[in-house]
Amino acid sequence: PGLAPPRAARPRARPGRAAPRGVGGRGARHRPRLREWLVDREKRQETGIPSRLVVLAGPTAVGKGTVSTYIRENYPDVHLSVSATTRKPRPGEVHGVNYFFLSDDEFDTLVENDEMLEWATVHNAFRYGTPRGPVLEAMAEGMSVLLEIDLQGARQVRGTMPQAVLVFLLPPTWEELVRRLIGRGTESTEEQQRRLATAKVELAAQDEFDYRVVNSDVGTAASEVVDLMALR
Ligand code: 5GP
Fold this sequence. Notes:
Bound molecules: guanosine-5'-monophosphate
Largest sheet: 5 strands, parallel
Low-confidence stretches: none
C-alpha cells in the first residue's frame, strides 16, 4: 500500500478464469517500486540514519525557490532534488542546477519509462516533474531530500511515499504575495493573473499539509524547514 495504486477490480475471478496473478492485485509497475522501497528501508536500517523526504509546496511567488536555494547554499547535508521541466530557462538559470530543461519528447520519455516520482502541468502551461532515481539514491545514502514542487505534485508524493513530510510555505499576507509576484517582473500581465488565480486555490489547500511555515524572512523560513527535516 502506498507504493502504487491498486489495479481496478475487474471481474476476473469468475469460474473458469485464472485468478489474478499480481501480488495483492498489483502489477508490473508496482514491483520495481516495492523493490526500491525495500532496498531503501534496508539501507536505512543498516546505517541507523533515517533519511527523510520533505516536500516544500505553497502558492506561486511565495518564495519556495528562494527558500530552497538558500537551503542548497547553506545546508549541504540536504539533497535538493533538481526537477525536469518543459519551460524554457530564464536568464541566469542553469541546466542541471535549477532544472533539467527538456523538450516535450524528452519529458514524455521519462514519464513513459516511469522515471518520474511525480509530475504535473503547472499554471496550465508547462510540465514539471521530479526524476525518481536521484531522490531514491540520496535517500538510500541516508541523506535528507527536499522536493520543491507544486500542490498537485505534493499530493502525488503523499500517495506514493506516505513517509514524506509535507510543508506548506505561506506568505505573511495576501498583499505581500501579490507584491512579490508583480515585483518579480518575470511574467506577462496575463501570466501574472493566471498565477494569482492558481495561488488563491493553492492557499485553500494548506490544511492538507503536516506543517506550515511563514516566509517573512528567507533565512528563518529555511532553518524552520530544515528543523522539520529532523523530526521524523
Ligand atoms: P517556475 O516556472 O516559477 O520555476 O515554477 C513554477 C511552479 O512549478 C512552482 O510552483 C514550482 O513549485 C513548480 N515545480 C517546480 N518543479 C516541480 C516538480 O518537479 N514537480 C511539480 N509538480 N511542480 C514543480
